[in-house]
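As the next step, I needed to go through one protein, both as residues and as discrete backbone shape codes, included below for the reader:
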Amino acid sequence: MALAHKFNTIIIKSLIVLMVLSLVAKSEPNTNVNLLWCSEYNYAQEDTYANSVAYVLVDLMNATTSRQGLDYRTISPYAVAESYGHATCNTVLSSNDCANCLVSAEATVSSGCSNSVGGRVEMVDCTMRYENYPF
């Protein structure tokens, strides 16, 4: 009887340790793409708007992780060819996981919407969008 009780205690303690470890364990952000949308209008790579888009995408990657709610909007500083951007991450993500998700989102929207005036990618754990108008 005492042996069975000791065995049950060991099993219960082991299960508690496993449960705690599963809560502490980090996971990678889910970067599966739910939606990729690109504007039908394009700009030339040498156009000033290209600099605006590049600025906005980098700013979204760098600033979103430090904003409350992992939600950030930005605008490029180039008045002649403004670009607007918005990015969000799932609020259960750590800042590092949010950053990793946004790097993936930026790569996806940049390659998928190359030279498009607007683009949007929605992944499971983050989103990123840029346009030539406020939204």
